[in-house]
Amino acid sequence: MRTIEWDYPKNQLKMIDQRLLPGELVVVSMTDYRQVVTAIKDMVVRGAPAIGAAAAFGLALAALRSAETTSEGLRADLNKAMQDLQAARPTAVNLAWALRRVMTKAGEFHEDIYALKQTILQEAQTIADEDVQVNKQMAEFGAELIDDGDTVIHHCNTGALATVDWGTALGVIRTAFEQGKRVHVLVDETRPRLQGARLTAWELEQYGIPYEIITDNAAGYFISSGKVNKVLFGGDRMAANGDVANKIGTYMLALAAYQHNIPVYTVVPTSTVDLSIAHGGLIPIEERPEEEVLNLEIEGKSIFPEGARARNPAFDVTPYRFLTAIVTEKGIVYPPFDINLTQVCIQKL
Ligand code: MRU
Question: 139-346 adopts what CATH topology?
Answer without folding.
Answer: Rossmann fold (3.40.50)
